[in-house]
Amino acid sequence: MVLVLSASLGAGHDGAAEELARRLVERGYRAPVVDYLACFPLRIGAALRAVYRLQLRTAPWAYEATFRVWYLGPGLRRALTAVLEVLTRRRLGRLLADPAVRGVVSTYPLQALVLGRARRRGHLGVPVATFVTDFGVHPLWIHPGVDLTICVHGTSADEARRSTGRPVVATGPAVRPEFRRGPADRASTRRALGLPARGRVALIVAGAWGVGEVEDTFDELHATGTWFPVAACGGNETLHARLASRRYGLALGWTDRMHELMSAADVLVQNAGGLSCMEAFAVGLPVVTFRPLAGHGRVNAARMQAAGVAEVVPHRSDLAAVLERVAGPDRDRLVAAGRGVFSGDAAAAVDRLVRDHMTRRVPYTPAPPPGGAPAPPAAVDHMTRRVPYTPAPPPGGAPAPPAAVDHMTRRVPYTPA
Fold first, then answer.
1. Which residue in 153, 123, 155, 129 sits closest to 141, CA to CA?
2. C-alpha to C-alpha distance for 214 and 233, rounded to whole angstroms
3. To the nearest 5 percent, what fractions of the chain are helix, strand and coil?
4. Taking CA 262 as the corner, what is the angle to CA 175 and CA 310, rounded to the nearest 5 degrees?
5. What are 304-328's pLDDT values in tens digits?
6. Which of 147, 287, 290, 372 has its CA 20 to 30 A from that of 365?
């Protein structure tokens, strides 16, 4: 079993965790997905989620400050890790104590810190991987005790490698299979969604919570006179109602038709750099960042632009020009760069990590024998050592088999259930 730890702070981390778990199941593992926030006592996890949402919606300056403070030095990060460990030790410890657990994957930074600390101190005997779901590698994503850091792009992997000094790989994002198959037929999809058959369509996404300056974006896209705005408002019912009252464009609440919407659109306009961007890369839909969120939204925007997979609108007056360029001469370049981020499989990297751990020779220190007998050597190879075996003499005086064989104790590759 590989335990997949996410955090219910928006849908991006959960979506990556669910897809990673699905792929691990295909490889023969059990892969339960657990919300790390549920490991906090006294509903502290729910309070953290409420504060985070409140900051994004009403006090982005406070979120920006919170996001930036962890860049100040490792001392603050160590203090945070210690607090998180104390708060979640009991419930997280019960999950990790399951003898079926062969590895742990984190798709959110808070639990990555706690797992890395436990691994480095020898309190966790199974390997830990962190799957960094963002292009921007925030310091909280990185811990030197984590066995493997998995990134969505090579530039992100380089940044993580400089910070941790531990193994880092770039595999690309984890998105559902329908996105990797590319777009559906545009004409039929537009008819099914009630969209204009002709003209350009801009799909606006703002995460599962529908946060950011979405109304302004919707209005400014309409004001270009060229673009038909379609807004996916997520669970923000107030935003959905306000946009639906406009006499132009299309506003949607929570939807599971994102693949169809991306197939029908000419460009994705986003503000966070989350899972929807990764899905757009897979479909082949150009991505534009406009009015990015504080904190991770701004960092992801800069990193994606530097990687050549998305464009940023520097000012509202530049919106029309950037969209025309992205839908025109720059489209093929952006689509190719976006699809190029899918260079591997995060689940395959986790599988290799677990298998390597299960099959390598691990020093083992046995307990002292009872009765004061001499102790065995201080460190021997336990499940993987070669142990001399002397069989019982065969009946009838037949020659005995060899005195030492390599039987149940040889190195055997581990195949998960």
1. 129
2. 8
3. 45, 10, 40
4. 75
5. 999 999 999 999 999 999 999 999 9
6. 147
